[in-house]
Amino acid sequence: MSLADILKPEGVVASLRARGKKQALQELSTIASKLCGFDAQLILDKLLERERLGTTGVGQGIAIPHAKFAEATDVVGVFARLDQPLDFESIDDRPVDLIFLLIAPEAGGAEHLRALARVSRLLRNQELCQKLRGSHERAALYALLTEPTASSSSSSAA
Asked: CA dihedral defined by 30, 34, 39, 42, rounded to 10 degrees?
């Protein structure tokens, strides 16, 4: 599974403006709704429910919010570069400026975990994250996230 399988160009936001975690998740839920056909409020509710279990702010300015839906047939991703970092209650207490949201099938547990692992591995690549933070164009962000060498170079950056 490549990121191009779950992330489409219209699922990339080059400069998301949000005043807080909930507003960022609302904006991303609206975009995800258009991509997967689920109600935006339902997506938001599931994301907030997941956040109550523990933050998806994984550190280093990155958050990977995710939710599962019984009706989902495929994993769908939405990526946003925030205009201004915001508090996401991250594990390292750093504000978040890169968010990769995942919607996954409830029945596809392994697929969901593979997608989470793939995104996590990719965003551990500090060089890639610097490029993402420096880019203000949707097409450039999409290319950085989906280029075949992105995932292989992230494994060498430890």
From this structure: -50
pLDDT band at 156 (very low <50, low <70, confident <90, very high): very low
Dmax over Cα atoms in the chain, in whole Å?
Answer: 39
CB 86 within 8 A of CB 119: no
Is 80 within a domain? Answer: yes
Q: Which domain does 18 fall in, by range?
A: 3-146
Separation CA 150–CA 132 (nearest Å): 12
Which of 64 and 158 is assigned the larger pLDDT? Answer: 64
Known catalytic residue: 66? yes
108 found inside a domain: yes
Q: Which two tokens stand for residue 24?
A: 């960022």
Checking if the pLDDT of 41 tops 60, the result is yes
- Residue in 97, 49, 46, 54 with CA at minimum distance from that of residue 76: 46
| Catalytic residue chosen out of the listed positions 46, 66, 81, 118 | 66
Residue 158 pLDDT more than 70? no
Angle between the 148-156 and 126-134 helix axes, to the nearest 10 degrees? 130
CATH code of the domain containing 98? 3.40.930.10
Is pTM beyond 0.70 here? Answer: yes
